[in-house]
Amino acid sequence: MHELSVMSNILDIVVEHAKRNNATRVTKINLTVGELSDLVPEWMQNYFDFVSKDTIADKAVLVIERRPAVLRCRDCAFEFALDREAFDFSCQKCRSANMEIVSGREFTVNSIEIDGGGE
Is the pTM of this model over 0.90? Predict the structure, then answer.
């Protein structure tokens, strides 16, 4: 249920930027979400619909780009996509367990589409 608090924070960000740009309505929100976030797109939209009701972002559509989880071996610098089914965090090249996460934890508002903006 952490989607509710995340989407409430997203709403705050979106409304702030929309008002700064004299928007009358937010129609679309483009997000990048890492696969390690465990946020479910359908639930994100449902919770966003709930928290945005009767706001400038009411009925805005979330467009979600998923970013794969990529790990880098600290020993040999090999990068590879995490296989979530195998859940193997060891290096596919040298089998070291000394890993760092390169991507997959992102949660970014890339852009918003609005009506009524401009000078």
Answer: no
